[in-house]
Design goal:
The complex is a heterodimer of chains A (about 500) and B (about 350). By secondary structure, chain A is α/β, with parallel strands linked by helices. Chain A contains 19 helices and 20 strands. Chain A folds into 4 domains: about 170 residues, Rossmann fold, CATH 3.40.50.300; about 70 residues, no CATH class; about 160 residues, P-loop containing nucleotide triphosphate hydrolases (Rossmann fold, 3-Layer(aba) Sandwich), CATH 3.40.50.300; about 70 residues, no CATH class. Chain A has a 6-stranded mixed sheet, with helices on both faces. A 6-stranded mixed sheet of chain A has the order 16-17-18-13-19-20, sandwiched between helices. In chain A, strands 2-1-4-5 form a 4-stranded antiparallel sheet. Chain A is globular. Chain B is mainly alpha-helical and about 350 residues long. Chain B has 14 helices and 4 strands. In chain B, the strands form 2 sheets. Chain B has a two-stranded antiparallel sheet with strand order 1-4. Chain B has a two-stranded antiparallel sheet with strand order 2-3. At the A-B interface, strand 2, helix 11 and helix 12 of A face helix 1, helix 9 and helix 10 of B.
Chain lengths: ~500, ~350
């Protein structure tokens, strides 16, 4: 199973060697004798389902825990990493999915944060120093960044570059990327991959965590798979096809993940004509039919999510939306919900759930008007019965109503949001990035559900950055480019046509 | 981590949630302080002191805190409650005075009703500015705190104490404060303010726990955008919490006027801080999303008991703000530390 080559040359190039790492959380084992190593000038991918132990392993490395067992050799010296400060000082930096840049400061100020210099007497901040030093780092990395620009105005990919520059400036030897592409669009992903390759060429060790197995051959050298806190194996990515990786992660193959399409589109249920929102999208027209899965594909920032939000009434927009032959003017989320339109929003944490409330409350929130008795009485028994049936239907783990949603894994949080909308029984349901950052098991469950909902005669709108999802599940695909409807493609697509869909999404950007 | 492990962690954190932990710490503090004081001062642990004196005096403040709890669970904040109470007191007295010729049967109900409407209207001003227009609650209620206080001053012609001229009417209105309802014979009676407070608590708990309105308030405090996208009319619900808070201020004003028989524009200053302190010490966090009326009740009683026992122990008044402030900091710090530990 193990294919670690143990020749001396490789050992000399090793920047990090973790062996036999064990970490317990209050009596339960999150990491069980895990070995992991990274060489200089290597991108080592780390994959596994949610809860497999990837984050825990990286948190050990980043000094978040002081009570792990096992040995870590970093840069040739045995170390015990007990604080984030120490990890950073030694030369280990983690770029988290949620970036930690300060939007109100400039690029240079962000890069130099913590290393400012001021005049010895007047304590006046030496801005030239900050700018010069930052510029040197930017030039060293060959980044296309303006040191004086405010970080808040930058795209996510560029903000990520700012954070990388900050880490490189601290002379890191090992850089960990925790799902960096989860919030990036196609063009930005390419830019980030180029940056990672450049960093590798400069001799940094890089750990790359991702759920998108398809992108690994383009960026990684080796891959280590974790499952249930144990290491399954380490492979060269060039020798390990994606199907093999997913088999290692789960024990079954990726193509099994997409269900058979059994839905049949019927008559028109939602008619959109000339929908526009200033600066976001313009003149969008399409029909959605009963029993149809309509995919909307486009790069991040193309306006695809904004269109969905406008239909649902989350944002204001102009244009006609006709639902079951009735024009819906002055759309609000509340009205849409009562009429039978639902939306699983893009950002689970900020828009989807109420983290500090229980699973039961989160499941029931959209249908309390239906559950109310006399005097608006909400019978706790009836609420619990209803929530319990949804927990069972969505297979939420743990199947307890009192658990606070913030204590659930990402996949289970998403199940709660989807379950909430199933309960509301909408005729049109919009899924905006329904599988972002969730494990393959839950993904498969959501795919199956999408097809089943369509089979029941509902209209489904599916938006996703993972084009393979849109390609495999949608009956028709609308391609949005720069806020305009660029193309309509008939689905479902074969594997080889996914590349074509990607082309359709980016074309305008490249030429414009 | 396996699913089983996650499950176990989730169950543990559910069993000892933060607010419950804070309530435990508040309650145990109460018991310890109570035990110490009753040892030092035999009059402390008597019905006359605890119920007749302490709880009756605290009832009006508690009613305001009940309204504030709704606002704060929804993630809001209201600095203007004392000013609203002042305006309501003045309106109540002026109105009763004007209607005194119609006799108490007309004057009292009409005046109380009008006062309630004024309270709701002033609360709605906050609610509309905060929920519908989207101005920060701190800024809005800081401004309305000044504006409403000014209105009270204007209504009293620059701050003179107003009194109902008709002595008979005044005495009849005092019944709202003075009436005692026997609970177990003559020695165990409860006062009208306590009765009103209990009714407010019961209705409030019903609203919060067993109605859609209450569920929505928790949802909004937990994540306003998520609640909106789940189809909740977040603006209307938020505005309603401020209106409700205004209403409870009007109720409190009725009790205050019944007690003092006068209304002063400059009365109740600083009460907004006592009210907010009770809610926070009880366990409803700034930012909302959790908490409740029983929590607020324990917070209120803790702060009142401390005041009471400082009196019993004859601690000088100059030390009292220090002690109260320290208690607030300690209780909230315990909560923060507990949160940090469990989020690890």
């Amino acid at each position: 199973m193990m294919q670690n080559d143990h020749n001396p040359a490789a050992a000399a190039r090793t920047v990090l060697l973790m062996s036999g790492i064990v970490k317990d959380f209050s009596g339960t084992r999150a990491l069980d004798e895990v070995d992991f190593d990274v060489r200089r000038g290597e991108v080592h991918a780390l994959i596994g389902e949610n809860g497999a132990g990837k984050s825990t392993l990286m948190n050990v490395l980043a000094g978040r825990f002081s009570d792990y067992r096992g040995q870590i050799i970093f840069d040739g010296r045995p170390v015990r990493i007990t604080s984030p400060r120490q990890a950073l000082k030694m030369g280990i930096a983690v770029i988290y999915q949620e970036l930690r840049v300060l939007g109100n400061l400039s690029v240079a100020e962000n890069i130099m944060l913590g290393d400012e210099r001021s005049h010895p007497w007047t304590k006046r901040l030496d801005r030239t120093f900050i700018r010069d030093q930052a510029l040197r780092t930017i030039e060293y990395l060959g980044f296309d960044l303006d040191p004086d620009q405010s970080v808040g105005q930058l795209s996510t990919a560029r903000q990520c570059m700012v954070e990388i520059a900050g880490a490189v400036r601290r002379k890191v030897k090992l850089l960990v990327f925790d799902e960096p592409t989860a919030s990036l669009g196609g063009e930005d992903v390419e830019r980030l991959f180029q940056v990672i390759k450049d960093l590798r060429a400069k001799g940094l060790g890089i750990v790359y965590i991702s759920h998108r197995l398809g992108e690994l051959p383009r960026v990684g050298d080796r891959v280590t798979v974790l499952r249930d806190g144990r290491k399954v194996g380490t492979r060269r990515i060039s020798d390990c096809p994606v199907s093999e990786m997913s088999r290692m992660m789960l024990g079954h193959v990726l193509s099994e993940v997409f269900p058979e399409k059994t839905n049949r589109p019927g008559k028109c249920i939602l008619k959109v004509r000339g929908l526009s929102r200033k600066g976001r999208f313009e003149d969008i027209s399409f029909d959605l039919h009963e029993g149809e899965v309509l995919g909307i594909a486009g790069l991040l920032g193309s306006g695809r999510s904004e269109i969905a939000r406008a239909i649902f009434g989350a944002d204001r927009s102009v244009g006609l939306v006709e639902f079951q032959g009735r024009a819906m003017a002055r759309r609000t989320p509340g009205r849409s919900c009562r009429n039978g339109i639902g939306m699983v929003p893009e950002n689970r944490k900020l828009q989807g759930n109420i983290p500090a409330r229980s699973v039961g409350e989160n499941l029931n929130i959209s249908i309390l008007d239906r559950l109310a008795g006399r005097l608006g009485y909400q019978s706790p028994g009836r609420l619990a019965d209803h929530a319990r049936s949804m927990v069972e239907r969505m297979k939420v783990q743990p199947p307890r109503l009192q658990t606070l949603v913030r204590n659930l894994s990402g996949g289970n949080q998403q199940k709660v949001i989807v379950g909430r909308w199933l309960a509301a029984n909408p005729k049109v349901l919009i899924f905006d990035e329904p599988t972002q950052g969730i494990d393959i098991g839950t993904k498969a469950q959501i795919y199956k559900l999408i097809v089943k909902l369509a089979e029941e005669g509902r209209g489904i709108i599916l938006i996703s950055s993972e084009l393979i999802e849109v390609g495999k599940l949608a009956d028709r695909i609308l391609v949005i480019r720069n806020g305009r409807l660029a193309k309509e493609i008939k689905g479902p697509l074969m594997d080889r046509d996914i590349e074509m869909l990607f082309e359709a999404c980016v074309r305008e950007v490249e030429h414009g | 981590m396996s699913k089983g492990q996650k499950e176990r962690r989730a169950i543990m954190s559910g069993a000892l949630s933060f607010s419950r932990l804070q309530r435990v710490s508040v309650l145990s503090l109460l018991v310890i302080l109570g035990a110490y004081t009753s040892y030092r001062s035999p009059t402390f642990l008597t019905w006359g002191n605890l119920v007749d004196n302490l709880l009756t005096n605290a009832a009006a403040l508690g009613i305001m805190a009940a309204g504030m709890t709704f606002v704060m669970i929804g993630g809001g904040f209201d600095l203007s409650v004392a000013s609203i109470t002042a305006v309501c007191s003045v309106v109540l007295v002026l109105c009763m005075d004007a209607l005194s010729s119609f006799g108490p049967v007309v004057a009292i109900p009409v005046s109380v009703l009008l006062t309630a409407l004024v309270g709701i209207a002033l609360g709605s001003v906050n609610g509309i500015l905060i929920a519908h227009i989207g101005v920060n609650p701190f800024v809005v209620t800081l401004s309305t705190m000044l504006v409403f206080r000014g209105i009270a001053l204007i209504l009293t012609g620059g701050g003179q104490a107003k009194q109902v001229a008709d002595l008979a009417l005044r005495n009849q209105f005092n019944w709202i404060y003075d009436a005692r309802i026997p609970l177990f014979g003559r020695s165990y009676q409860v006062s009208m303010p306590i009765v009103i407070f209990v009714v407010v608590l019961v209705v409030g708990i019903y609203l919060l726990r067993f109605t859609r309105f209450g569920h929505y308030i928790y949802a909004i405090g937990g994540n306003e955008e998520a609640a909106r996208l789940a189809g909740v009319s977040t603006r209307r619900i938020k505005a309603a919490t401020y209106a409700l808070c205004g209403f409870t201020c009007a109720l409190a004003a009725v009790i205050f006027v019944a007690y003092t028989a006068t209304a002063q524009a400059e009365s109740h200053q600083g009460k907004e801080l006592d009210v907010i302190a009770s809610v926070i010490v009880g366990g409803t966090p700034l930012g909302g999303g959790s908490g409740g009326l029983l929590a607020t009740l324990t917070g209120l009683i803790l702060l009142q008991v401390i005041q009471n026992l400082l009196t019993q122990l004859s601690v000088g008044p100059e030390y009292r703000p220090v002690i109260t402030g320290l208690i607030i900091v300690v209780v909230v710090t315990i909560d923060v530390l507990a949160r940090r530990r469990s989020s690890r």
